[in-house]
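We treat protein structure as text, and this decision shapes the records that our systems exchange. The remainder of this section carries one protein's record, kept here as part of the documentation:
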Amino acid sequence: MKKIFLYLITAMVCLAYTGCKYDDSDLWNEVDGIKDRVEALEQATTSLNNDISALSAIVNTLKTNVTITAVNQNAAGYEIKFSDGTVANISHGKDGADGADGVSCPQISVSLDTDGNYYWTLDGEWLIVDGQKVRANGIDGADGADGVDGVVTGVAPMVRINPENNEWEISTDGGKTWSATGVTALGQAGDSLFQRVDTSNAGYVLFVLADGTEFKVSKFDANDPMLVIEGIEGSLSLEYGTTKTYTVTSTNVAQYSIQKPDGWKVAFDGSNLSVTAPVKDNTYAESNGFISVIVVSPNNKSLIVKFEVSAYELKVLTFEDADAKFSPFKLNYCNKTISTWSDLIDDKQYGGEMLYGTGAGMNEPYKWYDQGNTELRHTMPESWGSYCYWGGGHAISNYYDTDQSNGDFTHQLSVFGTGAHNGSTNCAVHYGYRDNSGFTDSSELCALEFGDGVERIIDHMWMMNTTYAINCYIDGNGLTDKIGPDDWVKVVAYGYDKSGAKTGEAEIYLCNGPDNIVTDWTKWDLTKLGKVAKVEFNILGSSDNGYGFSQPAYFAYDDVAVRF
């Protein structure tokens, strides 16, 4: 909403170019070309990781007696459904064989070794990690433990493109560390991992890899056992001491047995499977491992359904003084010593020294760090040569108001309601956005990052509208119309790992039409971002007054939970 400053800049730029004619078609063609290349790289990465996951699933059927229940062809490739409920996707390359246009891919495959196990290969050679080959299939299809007998076992590699040099990198530890492959992602289109999928045989599906390796996986027979655990897609993470129950669909199951890590509890009654993580104080329990459900049919055919489990502790950023563990620090530009969260609250909602300096702007940023707890940190970004809040940031607030007549920029830190989440005292208020209007291209998005440099999963945070936003959604003001039936405002979170590669996106609507406006603290699940080093936040919406997004770009958040 703070558009006055932007309008002045825009007006000056327009005056500077009055009477001039400039053909920028070549520039925009170049921009479009870059966008196309980025999309091609993202498509190639997604397709290759899907193919690797599919190949891993296929290899593991060889020792688990998993069969194929369906093969569905679609525009993107093939969807393979297995009798243990897992689903794999094999992508079509260009013309059914090649990779994305203009993107070359590393040649990843598997090969059978003399010990009877399959191992991953890279460009025709064994994939070596820490001097060890990486086994593609688990041990006897059950435990899949790492580092047994001098090999890394049961691991599906992941790939990504390094944004700095456009080379493919590979990870065999779930994305914690990455190694260069020496293969550039730019150039001739590369081959898909799969050359052919043949479903013509009545008893099996034939998979032919790009290097000619063949796999035959049996099709599901009416007498085969089948066990599908709804909602588990290969792994399950639970908070210590909690239980989660899943619906189970089974066919031809006469008996079963369960293997689990120490300290975990598993209960199965034929229709439901309950998994309970160990309590954190149980020092003898394993924090992660695999649960295997082995089922046997009346005619003694067996099936192993296996999934990985891990337990975590939730640490919560509350912004409450009693929970402040950080060491005192000083904001020199306003001569303020910060010892508790409340010390970060400006005594004016608009124009105070802590968020706007002493009239000449701010030459250093407003910042905070939840050190010793969640390790989340925020630093006010620099915009237009200053660190003032009008350029965006996350300010700590204890201002609350339900009076819409106070819904203006002078009350910008007021959160709609009577308190923070769960009736607590403090929360944070975000301001800042970047749209496609051309006026905010240089705006840096506000972010949370882990100050100790460790990548973690942010489980969730609690969201709320500000009084300023509520007023404009309902009544509008001189710079924006009120929200109509088809209007919306949402927050989008973008996750990034330590290298700067994007890990995912999550979004939540602050309003979706006039009848769906957030007026209660609402939980926002951020787990789909995966493990992140940094999360950027943007506010997008349908309201546009001719200068881009016109609703107030604010939201409040509280109780940010991080998995440890």
